[in-house]
Design brief:
- With 131 residues, the protein is an alpha+beta fold.
- The protein contains one helix and eight strands; from the N terminus they run βαβββββββ.
- It has a four-stranded mixed sheet with strand order 1-2-5-6, with no helix packed on it. A four-stranded antiparallel sheet has the order 3-4-7-8, with helices on one face.
- A hairpin with a 2-residue loop joins β3 and β4.
């Protein structure tokens, strides 16, 4: 079995029809590279290869404006192999008036059990999950 490192499936949902859903998809698309890069900083410690990211697995959890900056939190679920989730994460960015995105927080919320046939891609076991 050959797995490609950090394979990304980018497709907009055909089910998104409202302006709100389309705006969410646009925001996710604009942050996708940042989310993947920052997610890999965590997962590269645990997997040697093979994580995949599907933009439909990214969700906007919260967005707020404070002190002239916008703070946006995403929920993400990277997968390995045939759509086996490896974890649930929350990633928060600060966006300033110039559009500069700064990672504020990455929290690994939940680890999933990795199937035996994919465990050879694990470097070490996960840390405790945070609630």
């Amino acid at each position: 079995m050959y797995l490609r490192k950090n394979h990304v499936i980018t497709t907009f949902s055909i089910e998104s029809t409202t302006k709100s859903e389309i705006k969410d998809e646009l925001i996710i698309a604009l942050f996708m590279n940042n989310i993947i890069t920052d997610s890999n900083k965590f997962y590269d410690n645990y997997f040697s290869d093979g994580l995949e990211y599907f933009n439909y697995e990214f969700k906007i959890k919260d967005i707020k404006k404070e002190l002239g900056n916008i703070h946006i939190t995403f929920e993400t679920t990277p997968v390995i192999g045939a759509h086996n989730p490896v974890g649930d994460d929350e990633i928060t960015y600060k966006v300033d008036v110039f559009g500069t995105k700064t990672l504020e927080n990455f929290t690994h919320k939940k680890s999933y059990e990795i199937p035996p046939w994919l465990q050879n891609y694990m470097i070490k076991t996960y840390p405790e999950t945070k609630n």
